[in-house]
Design brief:
globular
Length: 142
Amino acid sequence: MRIELGYPDPQAERILLKEQDRRVVIGTLETAINLIELRQLQQQCRDVKVSDALLDYLQRIIAFTRETSEFTHGISPRGAMALLASAKSWAWMHERDYVVPEDLQAVLPSVCEHRLRESGDYSDHVGTAIAQRILSSVDVIG
């Protein structure tokens, strides 16, 4: 995933500049979760259910990125797996044990926009996010 955090405000940046080397500070941090708990959370996310209809929608998204002339390369199998795993985690974070289309839609920009390269001149799409164009082109129901 690619997640943009932006720049810190000037005061926070000043603190960063005045403090010790980050590699030293990391050693002083308290553990928030142990390895066993982390693995349990990961398993809970993997256990989130995905219907065949949701997989159909995911495959339509993937196919669109591969078949349209808008992109030089579509979403790869590894990218598709990352998209599904992220959607499952998103659903879990929203206290559901199943994925809905909105979960895929929520994570698509962070998971896929950096994986896709536009081809040609799409000046009519200026200012339109890649993920929004994909979602507006692919029907939720096949």
